[in-house]
Each structure stands twice: as structure tokens, then as C-alpha cells.
Amino acid sequence: MVIIRKIKELRKRLNKLRLKNKTVGFVPTMGALHEGHLSLIRKARRENDIAVVSIFVNPAQFGPKEDLRRYPRNLKRDSDLCGKEGVDFIFYPDANEMYPSHYMTYVFVSDLSKVLCGSFRPGHFQGVATIVTKLFNIVSPDIAYFGQKDAQQAIIIKKLACDLNMPVKIKIMPTIRERGSLALSSRNVYLSDRERQDALVLPQALSLARSLIRKGEDEAAFVINEMKRLIRKKETARIDYVSIVDTQFFKPVKKIKGKCLIALAVWIGKTRLIDNMLVQY
Ligand code: AMP
Questions:
Q1: Could you identify the atom of ligand 1 that is nearest to the CA of residue 37?
Q2: Which has the closest alpha carbon to 199: 120, 266, 116?
Q3: Is 278 exposed, middle or buried (CB count within 10 Å of its CB: 0-12, 13-18, 19+)?
Q4: Atom of ligand 1 nearest to the CA of 145
Q5: Which neighbouring-strand residues pair with 239?
Q6: pTM of the shown model
Q7: How far apart are CA 90 and CA 96, in angstroms?
């Protein structure tokens, strides 16, 4: 496995391999790798000749008051994990390599970026869409892998790849959870023991929604209220949103029928956590 910091160098290496008809699978990450990331990496490894992982804490997707500086970074541990999984290349650029001075160009997937997390994190999805577009242009993957955990991000990336006619297949992989419960996230390291207990209320709220719907409840407002009631019982929890939306435009639904996304973002203390569940009725 090779760690490459320069765009030119990665392009040169990948071009050579592509001339030999090798396929490229790509997993973009911000590092601090956990089993969620590794599930994407393993899939990329299995399905392609070459597996590329990028590790880049993208400043463009953090708001001025967010955790860019504090975000966990550990290249040694990440590269050991990637090595064990048989990754061929880690792309590890610095901020200047990706955004040299006088950088001006941004990608914005309009309506999908303004709702759900987008309304609480202005500019976030523009930052995500921009870095993913740049990474796709650098790596030219055949298949790129994203997690359902970040459902809005995954759908935005599918849309941008389609709208901009990018020759890449996007695969969305299931959320990996701690013992079937709390979704794995690099940000979970911020949680104290007490907060980690309280954070279980996110998956619990989703299970509550699932059981209400299974019992025949189809009023979105009722399900959302019950979820909020449960979450508010935790002292450290503060809700950004609990929403039930369609999966194409993220428009709130009144009745739960067909395919819907139940998504929530909740602060546990000073840590903002997200989770979601697809339902089909
Ligand atoms: P991040 O490093 O947080 O930007 O995540 C990189 C990729 O890993 C994204 O496509 C995420 O959706 C995915 N990912 C993060 N956490 C999980 C998880 N618990 N299960 C599956 N995929 C995940």
C-alpha cells in the first residue's frame, strides 16, 4: 500500500493501471476509520482490481463554529487498518493541495442541500459536493462507495454524479452499528460515558418509529411527535430535527406510505449525531 499526497502522482499511478484495464473502487473518508468505513473499504476491495481510500478532513464542509480543528486525526492507525484490508492507495492530500490560494469553484446540488442537515449546517453540502467532485475528477473511479449513515450526503452525491454525467457508479452501503444500536461515527469519540448512554436514544427513536408503523400508524406527525417525546427524556439531548421525507426530493410526507426516509439529528451535549432509517410500506 502506498500513501500519496500529490494529485499528479496519484493520477500518474492510476492512469498506468487503467491502461492495463484495471478497475478502480474508491472510498472517500475524513479518516479516524472505524468498522463503518471498513465495510465500504472491504466492498471496494472485493469488487475492483484497485482500491483507493482518500483521507481528507475537508475544511469546506465545516461551518466556522464547527469541529474542524478538533476532528480526530490519526494517519498511522488509519494506514495500518487500510493496509490490513488490502487497500492499494491512500490519497492523503493537504488542504493546500485541494484548495490552493485563489480557489473559486464550488458545486451545489440545489434543493437537496437546503433541507434536513442542510438547514442547520449552511454550506455543508456545498463543501461535500465540491470535494467529492474534485476527488472523482482526480481518482476517476469506476465505483465509489458511501454509507447510508449519511443518507442525505449519499443521495446528493448520486444526484450530482447523474446531473454532471460523471462516469461513476455510486453504491450506498448499510449503516454499521455498535452491537446493533448506536451508528458508528468518528464523532462518537467526543462522547462521555453518560453521553454515550444517552446517544442510544437515536436508534431507540428509530426503533420506536418502526414499531409504530408496523402496528399500522401512518400519520408522519404522530410518529415524529412520539420520537421527539422519547428523545426529550434524555437530559443531554437537544433535537435539531426529526423528519419523515420522500427519498427523492426530501419533501416531508404526511402519510407514511411507499418509500420514506426517517432522519434525525440530535445534539448529545456538544456532539451532533445523525441517524436514519428507510421504511417501505
Ligand atoms: P466520513 O469519514 O465520516 O466522511 O465517512 C466516510 C464514509 O463512510 C461516508 O460515505 C460515510 O457515510 C461512511 N460511514 C460513516 N459511518 C458509517 C457507518 N456507521 N456505517 C456505514 N458507513 C459509514
A1: 8
A2: 266
A3: middle
A4: 10
A5: 266
A6: 0.98
A7: 17
